[in-house]
Amino acid sequence: MELTTLVQRVTQFALAHHDPRDCWIKATAISGVLAWDEPEAVRAVEGWMRGAIATQRSNGHLNYADAVQAIGAGHIRSFTPTAALPASLGFPLMQLYLRTGDAGFLDAAQRQMQALLDSPRTSDGGIWARAEGPELWIDFVHLMTPFMALYGKTVGAAAVVDEAFRQYRVHVGHLVDPAKKLARHAWCERPDHFPQSTFWSRGNGWLVCASIELLQIAPDHAEAGFVAETCAAALQAIARHQDASGFLCHVLDDPRSNLEASGTLMFAYAATRSITLGISPAALQAAADGAFLAVTRTVEQSGKVPGVAVPPGGPGVPFEWTQFGQGFFLLAAKALETRFKEIAA
Questions:
Q1: Per-residue pLDDT, 69
Q2: What is the 3-state secondary structure (H, E, C) of the chain?
Q3: Is residue 23 in some structural domain?
Q4: Residues 114-131: tens digit of each pLDDT
Q5: pLDDT of residue 22
Q6: Has residue 343 been placed in a domain?
Q7: Residue pLDDT, tens place only, 35-81
Q8: What confidence tens digit (pLDDT) does each residue in 291-307 have?
Q9: Span 158-193, pLDDT tens digits
């Protein structure tokens, strides 16, 4: 099958299953569609974003509502979002602004950014993951920092770009194990502990994908070397846990846990881009290729990418499909496009 055919199926499945109540879950799907630049699909996700702006709350949060109760397993019982969660939509919002020049997009981004900068923080400046904090989650490195960096670059706000790299460093300082080079899921400041501490494959995917976006947006920043070093070390550590199938296990160092698609795709994307950027050795490409091909073999005829651990992530959650799983398939496919014109069924 041609890769473009598979991409079209994955895209159409995402478009056909849009839930306007979603917030962060759809952000990567929008970026994935934009990466392929198919006009009809781009118009569709631009409509998603206009809907998010139309329902932007007075506090600046893009189309996100109330506290939620955790469903099923996971380490939380409730989640009241700070501005860090809807900030996930800020990155594709800025991508669309740069495409369209629509001042309404930039105005919405400014309001979301101000809410983010005004969010509660840990004693060393890390923006809380949820109002039940003080907590930092590795997910939020990706949900916040690419938006901050791209917004700051676009409007000439160097302090906001600096804040993106500051958030990256603070989160890495608390969540990345200095010996293992892998990220734990969540850290609580008071009392000082890890409420969820596994080396979760998607959690480490959030870290390396955020690294790639920061390095593409601001490669000359004073902290870029730290980001590159952290990313390269994490990718090598992830690769050491890759299953023979090409997949990553849901919990990286637990071969009894399920094979998980979204973390596997994030690894394929970030590893390939890291080689292009010159921060990882070319030898890592075989692992990235294997990861991407493993997931392609599971994509259903409908275009659904199955085998994704649903939010809130961590051990014990159900597996299904998600919009971010669709999105990371599209991003990985674009990164690997020149390597795979055809995909074996």
A1: 57
A2: CEHHHHHHHHHHHHHHCCCCCCCHHHHHHHHHHHHHCCHHHHHHHHHHHHHHHHCCCCCCCCCCCCCEECCCCCCCCEECECCCCHHHHHHHHHHHHHHHCCHHHHHHHHHHHHHHHCCCECCCCCECCECCCCEEECHHHHHHHHHHHHHHHHHCCHHHHHHHHHHHHHHHHHHECCCCCCECCEEECCCCEEEECCCEHHHHHHHHHHHHHHHHHCCCCCCHHHHHHHHHHHHHHHHCCCCCCCCEECECCCCCCCEEHHHHHHHHHHHHHHHHHCCCCHHHHHHHHHHHHHHHCCCCCCCCCCCEECCCCCCCCCEECCHHHHHHHHHHHHHCCCCCCECCC
A3: yes
A4: 999 999 999 999 999 999
A5: 85
A6: no
A7: 999 999 999 999 999 999 999 999 999 986 555 655 455 677 788 88
A8: 999 999 999 999 999 99
A9: 999 999 999 999 999 999 999 999 999 999 999 999
| Sheet of strand 135-137: strand arrangement | 135-137, 186-188, 193-196
Band (345; pLDDT cuts 50, 70, 90): low
> Which structural domain range is residue 17 located in?
3-335
Please check whether residue 87 lies inside any domain of the structure: yes
Alpha carbon distance 286, 273 (integer Å): 13
119 phi/psi in degrees, rounded to 5: -70, 155
> Can you read off the two tokens belonging to residue 175?
């969540």
307-319, pLDDT tens digit by residue? 999 987 777 889 9
How many domains does the structure of the chain reveal?
Answer: 1
Quick check: is 342 in a domain?
Answer: no
Measured N-to-C along each axis, helices 103-117 and 139-155 cross at an angle, to the nearest 10 degrees, of: 130
* pLDDT score recorded for residue 74: 62
Q: Structure tokens of 288?
A: 């990235």
Q: What's the CATH code of the domain at 140?
A: 1.50.10.10
- The rounded distance, in Å, linking the Cα atoms of 27 and 208 is 17
